[in-house]
Amino acid sequence: MDPKDADYDADSSQAEDSYSKGEECESRLDLCCAAWRTPEQQCENTAIISCKKCRLVAYCSNECMANDLKDHHASRIPPWYPRRTKYEDGEVPDHPLWESTTFWANYPATDVLNLAKNEGSEYNGCLRLLLLGPFALRHVIYSVVAMPETANPSLDVTLRENSICHLVRTFLSLLILSLDTVNSLAAAEIVVDVWYSAKWSDWTYSFIEKHVGQKIRNLYQEIQAWYKVKDESERKLCYTASLGTPDYLTFDVCLDWHTWTDLLDCYLQEPELRSMVGPRAKDVIKWGEPLDRVFRTFSSSRTAALMKWRLDGIMQPHGESASGYTIPNPAFYLLGTGLPEGITNEPLSEWPMKEILGYGPYPAEDDVYGKMNFYLRRMVIFFRARLKKKPITAHVIACGLKDLPGHIPMYYKDSRLYDRIEVGNWFDIYAQLCFLACAPLLRNVGENPYATMLTLCRQSVIQVKDEEAEKQLELEKQYLYGPAFPLLEKLAPPRQAAGEPYSTALLPRHMILFIYRNWSWFSCRSLFNPKIYGFTLPGEKKPQHPRAPVTVTGYLGAQMKQNTVVDGWGNTLWHSEDGKPTMEELMRWASWPAGKPQCWLEWRKVRDVTAGEFLEHLEWVQGTQTLRIFKTLYGDLGAREEEKKREEENGERNVGDEEKNERKGEDEAAVNGDKSAPEGMPLNPLAKKMLMRLNFAMEAARQQDKAALEEEKAAREEEKATREEEQAERNGGDEEKDERNGEDEAAVNGDESVPRRMPMNTLSKETLMRLSMEMKSSREDEHGST
Ligand SMILES: [Zn+2]
Ligand SMILES: [Zn+2]
């Protein structure tokens, strides 16, 4: 995404007006020459040529470069050495990536609207968004900037934060973004400091203090006054504060007493000017990637950038000095609790890798932090330019996912529905809860055919644990030591013989193998695995065998659809079937945080969820205790629904009675998953597509390993024969079995009928029926017992 240069220039000329007023004159949009004329004074010319040695800094002239060369290379920051990686004898890690706690969101900002492919490039209606992933504001900014020039929708955005640090980031930056009279250039620089820099310069702090300090103090008074007349027990009640600038960016923040106090105290506390070096070093030692790994997979410039970040945590061009940054950023410097864990890991993962690396023109080509800083400033400037064209309304809430239905009851009660819901990778952690909290809030396809719920799979595409997948992984491990495919031999020949303990020398080769892993195939095995995604439903204690996965059946009215908003495999260096990444691409990918493959799934809502059903599932997922709390909140929900139903029935009795009954039947059927799906809803096209890929991959695997498979097949046939004999002896169920097979085929071909009682392997007899021998035998058991 490239903001149009014309708009950008227009905005910077405005910025110059502000300069002439003598306000906020320190911000600039070009990179400063990295040479220091004297120990106190940096050359103020614009940098145009990159340092030939490191490409991390740039200079205005050859002269400056020559003068500085000794200095800047001598002043490289000594790295901290966290523990070396140790591998036990014979141990081969499942994947080569360093996995560790990170404070930052571990997937990039995403265009959750994609108007061109959905509502249209000229859309100017209303759109409501609910964003639940960490630091959700970035998606809003990114989406608005990515919007086609011709589109002009009214956006109403709800942002949920689940951590006080991210909440402070969001709150402070919204306050600054909504200042419509300040210079956009300066606002952009401040916002980037709020988001990322561990410490602020005096200039940053006084800008914030001047423009929003008093607002925060007033808000504090307002909140104290409101809760003063309340009981201790009423502190759980939320107070909503309205902030921002009308006709530009307005936002309200709805929090309980404790969260309000934590949030405002962060800013209002006296900043302690103590050193952060110790706590940062501790964090690096605990969570940082060990240096022996870093040296194997990072280029030397990337290593230098990482070391600088670990030390000072200031997001700025590499050549600039951090010495003026002395005031702790309240977002990361919590009262009494120290730094949030994993904060010294790189924040680069919050934005798209390709866009930051490709940001230009930027003279210091390898300076990722400088690029990111400029990339973000430019994005913020463009975002504010859009606000002038069309205001945005935002709502900020803070709660856990499980508290969402209790936190915003009015949304569930009044059906204030959303056109996009970004769930992020909460789907990995508790998929069923995601559906429960979000599916009722998604707008029905009947109202907006493009309404989409977005869920991200990171862990879930990696955690495959079935026989076929294990076999593939074993093969991959053999390739580490012995001959594999030509590209791999060329880029990273084996560095160790089999039998030697795994060492970091194997990392580059392991990483290429990891990239080349057929992720579609692997993710299918996980996403269509009934054991993982076959949810139990209310009343089901322990099902005899897992249910069909929700990726096939849908859940609470939500059904998986073809991706139209987000690329399925967005940010990773993803191989196409014949893709050949270069060594440079590989190194970039290998040195980017959160390199794990991630896959976006999209869902639409094909049927509304009744209040009764919602509460029933809520109880099932959340427990009776929670339900009791919610029942008071949603008490009249059921009653109102009954009434509404009665009214409708009275009104429409004469019109289309039959049709209505029919539709009602279908809805119920869809709930129980035991009849035909509502008309016009073919079974999940994405599943079909993925299945085709799965079949393709299976075919390839089969050819590779024919002998073994043949053997297996023979064994299976033998087994089958014995079983059929047994079956015949039990003289029953044969017909039923045939019927079921027919249904399986129908499902694969996307027939509109959903098979009765959804047998677990509706996907493909050839492939997924073999997913798990266990399941098969349990089904046989069931079969036998009927
Ligand atoms: Zn250099
Ligand atoms: Zn210079």
From TrEMBL:
Pfam families in the record: DUF4470 (PF14737)
Every DUF4470 domain range: 103-200
Region listing for Disordered, in residue ranges: 1-21, 640-683, 703-786
InterPro entries in alphabetical order: DUF4470
Biased composition (Basic and acidic residues): 640-667, 703-740, 776-786
Protein name: DUF4470 domain-containing protein
Organism: Trichoderma guizhouense
